[in-house]
Amino acid sequence: MKDSPVIRIASVTDAPEVSRLLRSAMLTYCADSGISSSMLEAMTESIESVADRISRQTCLVAETGGRIVGSICIKECPNPLVYNFSDKTFEYLKDMGKSFYISRFAVLEKFRKTGLGIDLMTRAVDLAREKGAECILLHSAATNKNMVEFYGKRGFELIDSENSRGYMRGLFARRSDSL
């Protein structure tokens, strides 16, 4: 790509642009997952809540030409069992130590399939590794074949799924031995 996006830590002033990016990317995510946009919290959050997340978590953005074209957030979760929703999940997570959670992963449509998503995910995983992660977790629609495949190629495995939000939501994990 001619002008490759630069990945940097987001600032709260990026919140309006990150919010627009998330809404745009989540529309595609919904279509690819076969779910309604009304089922996603990301579609209704305010710019203020995006700014709050940026201030509390490590959020990365990819920027090119003064425009944000990708984002990902990662935060430490002191107790990964907060994501437990079955005996299967409990067994997987019960002995996990330092864990991190990835959220709000989005790439502008024009920049998909360019390697930008891989770069953002790699940077997020590297940050977690540097901080001593034993496990990285994330949720995604289990029906979204593109995302399930993407995460699988990055070493994440689907460890469980549930339907409390009205769609089959998978919990994906990547252990430290694959970080």
Brief overview:
The chain is an alpha+beta fold and about 180 residues long. The protein has one domain (about 5-179): Aminopeptidase, CATH 3.40.630.30. Helices cover about 35% and strands about 30% of the residues.
Can you walk through the features of this model?
With 179 residues, the chain is α+β, with helices and mostly antiparallel strands. The chain has one domain (6-178): Aminopeptidase (3-Layer(aba) Sandwich). It is built from 5 helices and 7 strands, in the order βααββαβαβαββ. It has helices spanning 15-33, 47-56, 87-93, 116-130, 145-153; strands at 6-9, 58-64, 67-77, 99-107, 135-141, 157-162, 169-175. The chain has a 7-stranded mixed sheet, with helices on both faces. Strand 4 (99-107), helix 4 (116-130) and strand 5 (135-141) form a beta-alpha-beta unit. The radius of gyration is 16 Å and the shape is globular. The two termini are 27 Å apart. The relative contact order is 0.17.
Which features characterize this protein?
seven-stranded mixed sheet, single chain, 179 residues, Aminopeptidase, 34% helix, alpha+beta
